[in-house]
Amino acid sequence: MRRCLAFLATVLLSAWAGTAVAANSVTVESRQVPLGATGVTVGVYLENEDSLSGLVIPLEIREVTSGAFIADTLEVSAQNRLVTSLSDMVVQDFMPEQDNTKWWCCDGGGFSTRGAPDFLSPDAFIYAAIATSGPSLPIGNDGSPPDGNPSIQIMFAVTETEGTFEIDTVCITPNNHLTFMGRDEVAPLPVSFTKGIVTIVDSCACDCHADPICDSVHNILDLVAIVGVAFQGADPIPDPNPFCPYETTDVNCDDVTNVLDVGLMNLVVNYGANPDSTFCNPCAP
Known about the structure:
This protein has 285 residues and is α+β, with helices and mostly antiparallel strands.
């Protein structure tokens, strides 16, 4: 793996002279997430005005507020445009500790020791990919968060501490800065970078709790949806608001959709029960 990484760095950075005029960018999505959230996804959005034969994207996750950080899970995967491009050589490595190795490219303060994330700030990782004979990354734009189609997805859980942490670019040794290599260019292309800020907040808000159809009324369609989840193996129906702690079908807030939820929804839909007193308040303390 180290030989592959060194080779990749050599291919991408061997000719550093010269300048290309192009607007290329990497943007990390910023998000607000609730305390202790799991399965949080953050997109890394690419824009390239040249066809790319390779790229190196080293990122550092660093707490801004003490204790506000990733927890338990950190996964990185190619998405959308990168799934079928730059696939001849792909390197994904994690660096759990900043070691301040004074490589020429890092000026002290880089990461070099590879290993599993330790979920102590800072953690770092690198996504690097190159095309030798396979397809390059064609000219394109992933769009803007949160509505675009990111080329890289970061998934993690967060701690129970309110505050913020950043996902910024960094130097990872040996010789790996943020780099785009154009298919027809000799020198690396200039790349702008926008860091992401993840804010962990203590809040609760639900848009469609006890309303799985999410049409602001309680009717037979909602009852059918709950029956599907409770008895027929249908997929869970989360609230579209990420700050809602319960599924839309969990009308009694016991963290499961079952016969009790079916019975309560049946009372409201078919027997005129008051939903305010029949269903739980998902944001009650």
